[in-house]
């Protein structure tokens, strides 16, 4: 009797939880371009250009192995893409991550100019970025389009 | 026999001009490294560069496609020299390389002996997956199962051959297809086929799915501008602009693009005028505190809109501070709308029945453009939506 009562209580708790877990991924999709946490930043290019140490922006993994290592210890960094400054010394980068915590190193670095999507003003970003690349346009910039049906709001 | 041309249409009758199974040495391709061939395809570490597989149109623009049955871990080479090779520890030649490995896509280039990592993006590569790299002019775009993953703009390498690679002996690649760039834009959208529904602060738009030309690679996305300013792009022919102002006329334009970046210019323009701020939307879903409802068996019929809401609280999470939050399964009947422009399907099945939603509530940012939040949309557990567009600072000293 008592066992049955416990089972019923357990089922009453677990079934909605299970339903919740199973159905949450099926919620309506948001435009992928508006998903995730995003920063844009001006960072120096690093790397010797060798197979083990390719040229790349600071705060990006050198290869797939480093990316996996990075994602094991931090919130997941999903993507980055960049254009180089007119003098080739800097990268104008967009970083994308599932969690803001993935940007901990970037945020903590006082030497880097960075802007967070949704907080920084477009004009401020474009003014700063154009100091490094004269023809910069934020509309043409981004880690990826990844477009889907936008039913965000 | 080895040099076979296989029709592998993505849509319509687009055909790839070269196909290699890669279960045996491929004709017209230069091997680098130590390729081995089995029924699973070519294993590495190795690359195969199609020095005899250049496009017939005299350009170095093409699409490289492979199909992976298991967890993908191989490379595409584009604009590559005959000795192009990169396995993570050794690199030779010049190339763009798209590396599909460890559920991520990385784009490298090697020019003048300097290797550069150009972009990286996470993407599920668990098979079967179709991997496509499209090189056109200075643009390289990568698609996984027809979804755009990442891309670059770079002008360092104007010419070179297509190819594939496998990074190690446990990685393999097979079924390589190489196709010409489709240079014909999909037909423009017929303006008369565009349907709009406008409320003071929202525009909904739908149109028939665009079709590419008969030999086209297929329609990829629809790009929208409002008064000449880019506002968004979608892969389905429906679009919502939640950032319009009441009593205002806007000129929209839509472009249809195919997977090879052709868009019919100048796009299709149409004009929309929003109603005044006091115009009432006949649709109102959810249960609101100030609404008037009727129902005797748990249903809530909105006496203003006629929407029938049925909400079943499933679970209440309680916090130590006395706060609680209820997860509810809700249904709203106003899923369809019929107006002079036709019938609109406003509901969807998110996995457990058409029109049903399970939620505690949500706050969604609505973007004016890629960078700027216009307002937030709060949806409660009954599905009622509230536009949060007043940014008011409340001062404790204010009277």
Features:
heterodimer, A: 153 residues, alpha+beta, Alpha-Beta Plaits, five-stranded antiparallel sheet, 4 helices, 30% helix, 21% strand, B: 399 residues, mainly beta, Jelly Rolls, Immunoglobulin-like, 3 domains, seven-stranded antiparallel sheet, six-stranded antiparallel sheet, 35 strands, disordered N terminus
How would you describe this structure to a colleague?
- The complex is a heterodimer of chains A (153) and B (399).
- By secondary structure, chain A is of the alpha+beta class.
- Chain A has a single domain, classed as Alpha-Beta Plaits, CATH 3.30.70.
- Chain A is built from 4 helices and 5 strands.
- Chain A has helices at residues 2-23, 64-73, 104-108, 122-130, and strands at residues 37-46, 56-57, 77-84, 90-97, 113-116.
- In chain A, a hairpin with a 5-residue loop joins strand 3 and strand 4.
- The radius of gyration of chain A is 21 Å and the shape is globular.
- Chain B is built from no helices and 35 strands.
- Helix content of chain B is 0%, strand content 49%.
- Chain B has 3 domains: 18-180, Jelly Rolls; 191-273, Immunoglobulin-like (Sandwich), CATH 2.60.40.10; 293-388, no CATH class.
- Chain B is mainly beta and 399 residues long.
- A 7-stranded antiparallel beta sheet of chain B has the order 2-5-16-7-10-11-12, with no helix packed on it. In chain B, strands 1-18-6-13-14-15 form a 6-stranded antiparallel beta sheet, with no helix packed on it.
- Classes of the chains: A alpha+beta (153), B mainly beta (399).
- At the A-B interface, helix 1, helix 2 and strand 3 of A face strand 11, strand 12, strand 15, strand 22 and strand 23 of B.
- Strand 3 of chain A pairs antiparallel with strand 12 (114-122) of chain B.
């Amino acid at each position: 009797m008592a066992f049955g009562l416990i089972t019923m209580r357990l089922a009453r708790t677990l079934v909605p939880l299970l339903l919740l877990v199973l159905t949450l991924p099926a919620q309506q999709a948001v435009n992928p371009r508006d998903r995730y946490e995003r920063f844009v930043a001006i960072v120096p290019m690093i790397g010797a250009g060798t197979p083990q140490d390719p040229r790349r922006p600071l705060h990006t993994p050198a290869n797939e192995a480093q990316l996996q290592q990075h994602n094991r210890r931090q919130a997941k960094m999903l993507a980055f893409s960049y254009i180089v400054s007119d003098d080739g010394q800097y990268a104008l980068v967009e970083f994308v991550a599932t969690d803001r915590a993935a940007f901990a190193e970037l945020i903590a670095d006082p030497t880097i100019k960075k802007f967070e999507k949704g907080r920084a003003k477009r004009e401020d970003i474009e003014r700063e970025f154009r100091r490094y690349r004269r023809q910069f346009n934020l509309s043409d910039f981004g880690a990826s389009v990844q477009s889907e049906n936008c039913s965000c709001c | 026999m080895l040099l076979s041309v296989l029709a592998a249409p993505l849509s319509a009758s687009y055909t790839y001009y070269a196909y290699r199974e890669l279960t045996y040495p491929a004709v017209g391709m230069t091997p680098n490294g130590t390729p081995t061939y089995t029924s699973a395809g070519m294993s590495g570490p190795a690359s195969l560069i199609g020095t005899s597989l250049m496009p017939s149109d005299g350009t170095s623009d093409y699409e490289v496609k492979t199909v992976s049955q298991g967890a993908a871990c191989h490379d595409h080479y584009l604009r590559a020299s005959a000795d192009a090779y990169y396995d993570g520890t050794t690199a030779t030649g010049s190339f763009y390389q798209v590396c599909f490995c460890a559920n991520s896509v990385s784009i490298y280039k090697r020019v003048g002996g300097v290797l550069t990592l150009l972009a990286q993006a996470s993407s599920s590569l668990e098979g079967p997956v179709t991997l496509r790299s499209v090189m056109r002019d200075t643009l390289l775009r990568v698609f996984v199962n027809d979804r755009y993953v990442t891309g670059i703009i770079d002008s360092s390498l104007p010419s070179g051959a297509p190819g594939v690679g496998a990074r190690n002996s446990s990685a393999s690649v097979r079924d390589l297809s190489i196709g010409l760039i489709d240079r014909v834009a999909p037909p423009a959208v017929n303006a008369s086929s565009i349907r709009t529904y406008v409320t003071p602060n929202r525009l909904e738009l739908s149109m028939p799915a665009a079709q590419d030309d008969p030999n086209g690679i297929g329609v990829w996305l629809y790009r929208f501008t409002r008064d000449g300013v880019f506002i968004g792009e979608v892969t389905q022919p429906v679009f919502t602009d939640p950032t319009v102002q009441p009593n205002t006329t806007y000129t929209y334009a839509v472009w249809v693009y195919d997977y090879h970046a052709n868009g019919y210019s100048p796009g299709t323009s149409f004009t929309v005028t929003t109603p005044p701020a006091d115009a009432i939307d006949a649709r109102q879903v959810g249960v609101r505190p100030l609404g008037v409802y009727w129902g005797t068996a748990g249903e809530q019929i909105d006496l203003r809109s006629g929407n029938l809401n049925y909400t079943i609280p499933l679970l209440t999470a309680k916090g130590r501070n006395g706060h609680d939050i209820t997860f509810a399964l809700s249904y709203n009947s106003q899923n369809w709308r019929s107006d002079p422009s036709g019938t609109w399907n406003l509901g969807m099945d998110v996995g457990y029945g058409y029109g049903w939603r399970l939620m505690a509530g949500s706050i969604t940012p609505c973007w004016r453009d890629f960078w700027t939040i216009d307002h937030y949309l709060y949806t409660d557990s009954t599905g009622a939506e509230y536009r949060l567009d007043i940014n008011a600072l409340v001062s404790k000293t204010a009277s």
